[in-house]
Amino acid sequence: MQSTTSPARPTGVVIVAIVFLLGALLNIVTSTDVLGIMGAGGARNPGDLDIPVGVLMLVSAVLLIIGAYGLWVLAPWGWMLGVVVMAAGLVLNVLQYLNDNTLLVPMLVSALIPVAILWYLFQPHVRAAFGRT
Predict the structure, then answer these.
(1) Cα 133 from Cα 41, distance rounded (Å)
(2) How many whole angstroms from its chain centre is CA 15?
(3) Are 26 and 33 in contact (CB under 8 A)?
(4) Residue 123: helix, strand or coil by DSSP?
(5) Which of 34, 90, 103, 104 could pair covalently with 54 via S-S, beta carbons 3.0-4.6 A apart?
(6) 122: which DSSP letter?
(7) What is the residue-wise DSSP string for 6-70?
(8) How many other C-beta atoms can be found within 10 angstroms of the C-beta atom of residue 61?
(9) What residues contact 27, with CB distance under 8 A and at least 6 apart?
């Protein structure tokens, strides 16, 4: 009888998958506020970019959920999606800073999570768990 053992899931991958799910939840809540879905009414002044930003946040939430699943099951595409989503998050942090350069410290702090996750995903044992050499 042939034994089919799946590779051990690194603990850090579990943590990253949970971080992805928490990020998705945060994006969903924030996007519903930006889009005015939660009934905040006149609590905020709508801007010209509210609808595109809200939709992008919802798309990001979906990608984070899919990425969390891909990481959880150690799918090679899950690793790639995780890298792409974190790289895009890093780019968005820089674009946010360029839009309002008074936010340097918050931009640097919020960039730490994607940088740390990218660093972790490129560790040899993590890449090997996803079948990447």
Answers:
(1) 52
(2) 13
(3) no
(4) coil
(5) 34
(6) T
(7) PPPPPHHHHHHHHHHHHHHHHHHHHHHHHTTTT--GGGS---TTHHHHHHHHHHHHHHHHHHHHH
(8) 21
(9) 57, 58, 60, 61, 64
Alpha-carbon span 56 to 122, nearest angstrom: 26
For the stretch 8-54, pLDDT in tens is 889 999 999 999 999 999 989 888 877 777 655 555 555 666 778 78
Q: What would the two tokens of residue 36 be? A: 């005015």
pTM for the full predicted model: 0.81
Euclidean distance between CA atoms 62 and 85, whole angstroms: 11
CA dist., res. 30 & res. 100, Å (int): 19
